[in-house]
What does this fold into?
Amino acid sequence: MVIIIAILFSVDYLETKCNFNLKLMEYKLAEYMYGPRSVAVGDLNNDTILDLVVVQQKVDKITVYFGVGDGTFTNRIDYSTGLHSRPYAVEIADFNRDSQMDIIIANFDSNNIVIMYGLGNRSFSQYTELLSTNASRPIEIITADFNKDSYPDIAIANYGTDSISVYYHHLDAPLLITYSTDYDSHPIALVAEDFDNDNHLDLAIVNYGTNEIRILFGTSNQYFDDKITISTGVNSQPRSIAVGYFNADEFIDLVVSNSGTNQISIFLNNGNRTFVYHVSYSTDSGSPYAIGVGDFNQDNLPDIIVTNKGTTNIILFLGHGNGDFEVSTMLQTGSSSSIALGIGQLNSDRRLDIVVVNEDTETIDIVIGEYGGFANQTRYPTGLNPQFITAADFNDDTVTDIIIANADSNVVSIHLGQGDGSFGLPTNYSVGSGPQSIVIDDFNNDGRSDIVVCNYWSNDVSILLGQANGSFAEKLSYSVGMNPRSIGAGDFNNDDQLDIAVVNVNTQDVSILLGQGNGSFLKQATYSVGSSPQYLVVGDFNGDTWLDIVTTNSLDNTISLLLGIGDGSFKQQMTYKVGLSPYYAAVADFNNDNQSDIIVANYGSNDVIVLFGTDNGLVPQSGRYRAGSGPISIGINDFNNDTQLDIAIVNSMSNDIIIFLGIDNGPFIPESRVTFPVGSLPSSIVTGDFNNDTRVDIIVVNANDSDISVLLQYNTGTMSVSNTYAAGVGSRLACILTGDLNNDTNLDILVVNYGTNNIGVFYGYGNSSFTEQAVFYAASNTHPLLIAFGNFSNDNSIDIAIATEGTKQLTILNSNTILNLFLREWTGDNSFQSEPLAMISSDFNNDGQSEVILVYDDEDYVDIFVSNDPAIFLVPILYSISFNITSVAVGDFNHDDQLDAVIADSDNNCVRILFGKGDGSFIQETQYPVGDYPQFVIVGDFNNDSRVDIVAVNKWSDDISILLNLGNGSFAQQIRYLTGSGPCYAAIDDFNDDNQLDIVVVNSLSNDISIFLGLGNGSFTQQTNYSSGSYPSSVAVGDFNKDTQVDIVITNYLDNEISILFGVGNGSFAQQTTYPVELSPQAVAIGDFNNDTLLDIAVLNSGSSTVSILIGRDNGLFSQQMTHVVGSYPLSFAIDDLNKDNQLDIVIVNHWNDDISVLLGQGNGSFVDGSLYPVGFFPQSIALGDFNNDDRLDMIVVNFFGNGVNVLAGFAINTFQKKATLSAGPNSKPKSFAIGDFNNDGTMDLVTANLNSNSIGLFLGFGNISFAEQIVLAKESSLSPCSMAAGDVNNDTLLDIVFTNCYSDFISILFQIDNGSFGNLTSYSIGLYSAHRSLLLNDINNDTYLDIIITNRDSNNIGVFLGYGNGLFSSMLSFQLEYGSRPVSAIIGDFNNDHKLDMAVLNNGTDSLNIFLRTC
It folds into this structure.
């Protein structure tokens, strides 16, 4: 719906009165009816990425869109096809063989074929006429080499002359040969193929008028000598044609779209120049227009894609290979008239995508082929407690079989595949006790598959040699270490015989059994690895051609790499830190560099990690991805047929698998994560094509259920609309405003382009001409509907508020007058439920910052929104530092006035310094040793030298380290002080009033705190201890009872409470007072959250994932906690004013959600949710500071397992927040409003046009964005108030109200008679059947009296009522627009600087913008 916004312009001059007149300018400032007709797909700029050419018939243009390679397009360029040409069809070909693609166009109205030659720099020549076709009305063209001269020729369907023409251009003299298709045949489409397999191209022609297909057979002399006719059925009205090998013979077949019968028809080629009708398929209620053929589900069989006129505008039919098809996908994209289509791979996933031209919405849809996932699981029983599965073809029938290790029945079971995804009954073979893992290969060189099994309880491996009849011999056994879990095979000593490697859990080693080539093995050699190794993989990880071994060590949180020497022996292990409790590993080349990479499933940290292989070994922490609960196995394969490796993670505790899709440079796309349920306690996975459909399927063994889950991949050609592009620069004009947007004293015009999801600006030159449209705020599927000007960012510049229908949100565009552009601000959480109908801005609380009012299409209220700063942070910058980073603090360590950071590295028992550069970046760190497992760091000046020193809290050595700053960014050797047991946190302040900093340390294992009193020279007294609760976890300090002494608050993790110790003033403290909080309090901080000058307490509760707020009272007492839910397992937080509103906010580290969350303080002790920011795996600690000197707080966050430090820069931004809702009464349905000071009290009021209650409502403002209850000013059954405006129309200094009536042909005026009270109504006729849409008040004729301007939609005119200054108006003056323009909105302004007000009119019918200039 189009909305009207009244903008009043003051005129500071008078002019000689003249006869009022408006002149309609011949040009239209905007005209969006482009009329897209057809599309061609090809690589126009030789970048291997497909581009688009769209024919725009109504504006005599083609539009070129250059592909980006991800399914999106950019750099739109328009080219003229000639005046009054009306282009209909387009082809792309290298017409002159210069290796540049050219564009050939058929012009329907100018009856010619033109070409634009590619110039090789993303540009094309102006059109050149190739031939004129003498009133033939060319409607379709194709290019092909009909005479085999290696140059493309052109075949043309001539709709007007019932013929087709073939143009041979690369001859001494170009030749045009025309063939009749018979009277009234109206050929409309054609295709070239060799239908009779004689090596000459033939032509199939769609004759719309005679309901038939005509085939002309080609000969060696470039002519067509024979023809056949195929009926498509009575009233079938065939529209388009495509070809393909539909029934797997050697002859190409036909498919035709029949628009008259809503069907597509298949005609199979007999090979003897005859075709037989095979079958027809309904296209639902849609009339099929365009048709194409391609393999959309990658099964190597042709499928059919159809676009329709109808609500279901895209249908995909999947081919079976026998001439039959089935409906797979039916899409509704919002268009009901999709008339053309192009096919190609528009992104890098190697799936076919389509481009669809929509006639009614004048848009281009990009429909992307997608990976469809897996069908619901099918279950098959196994032996008891299955632990492992793998696959092979055991019976040489080319069908994949599976083998399962059943731990509790001590057998391996072979299930023969049936080729359809099902499996036969098991054949069991006895092995040792507790079989855990299987490897299959030919260990005795007889060409048959053998089986090797490791047996956990019998401490051996079983060898089952394959026999000629497909069965296996009885087991041979070889002893290995204690509790073998996993097995691998390879030629470790380069003797061309397969060897075996086994990982042993309890002896913590790897057994190597060297193969003799006859199925026997030498006695084991062993190599030590980490603690509790669980899995083993084999590969060449350093590029020396010798096989190496990697094991996962679940108790060390590491993997071990044993580098092979090539003689069957291995070097001593190298270890790499991974996640918690690594269980499984697999090897593959994920980044396509021909190096073996490792992927590890970390059971304890619920993630997988990728380590890339190099010539020097593995690169730690190359990528980490969140899994489900208890990841225990990984399957690797190309699940989506894009030639990139993907992974399927088996999660034993959440009973599911998770798929991540791979990308070119490895490893995976986080957003591609999809979850599929399986059985109970899944333990192993195998992938392969189990139903012979060329798609990779998945089988998982479920240990608790003693069965397998078979997940067959969907093969349905899933598709979805990814992007929509307008045929023109914009489409579906919805709203207009005018103002001087670039401060050049000339008026500019702002338009809302609903269809193209953008805002356009025409910058005025001051002479009634304007620049080309500049486009801002391109946001997919938002569908902006309304705009308003205002000072929303409080910087005294013109900003733009946008209300969207698609996302139902408000957005701010902040102006940048230097660059003449608008920058998109944050949308925030300000959604509304219904379609926005009208919007206006004003300053309702006189603070200099604008607010916004919205009224909706089907609601009984109006909303008022205020702009605020939501504390937004930019995408984090990651610095790779180390593993197991536990804490961070900030300070200027080198006296360069830039903030630096100190990080606690618990893995290497050191602290690391990152030096800030002042632009938000940091340079390489310096490290200093401290005690064992530094858990926390804090900074302060402990020796009064004005330099920032460091304290590290060392949890495992039960002490703290003091590092004194030497003044140049370096630090002296640590000084250590003993603490209690398990120190984990610290705070600093002056506890004994000697002006020296002291330290309090929390000791988690001895349940107390240690006080160290500073001596002012960097040294401290020995600790004094005070008891706390159970397992204290953090501490904060402040004066809670306003006695000027520092007090202490401690979180007691196991008691679910906090302890407060009041300071006495001499460094000692009173006995603790406790307050209950929620589960597992982890961190504490203080601040004045309700602005009462008393300190309040915030507690982070890890167990309940909440924040507790305890409001401070007099005498050090605190209120009962208030709680706010945050992310999962919050671990630390920081408190400060993040958005500069003078209220304290909280930023929280959510350890298990891998993100940071913001709580915005409201100043009364309450908080609202802010934004979430992903920061990598297991964030641990946070600090705030201005790292880039922009006067905004930034964040630095360290990750415990994420191998790095994240820096998030704070960003000044504004968004809208709903502040008030005003009810207009039940079933009132207000449609418009106006603002003004109606009672002369100096504050803004609001009036509403209440359509359903036939009334006008007045809301008197209080000046603080609150209003009195509605006063009903007028209520009459004859009223149907629609659009409205307010102004003093009778010069009595009181605001009056003017409004239109939706259901009657008059406007009404409500005169104010006193402050806020109104008298009778006066009405003026606007003519019959006018269906007005908008109303403005302005002095359009410069006589100092307000006039009324309305747009009359149905009568296609603008109405002007000239005011006489006494409340009376002239009869309506009518200014006519072209028929069908249907004007719906207008704006007033002086566009040519002649001191006369002009008008711009938005036309809904022609999607255009007219300019009226006032003349005298």
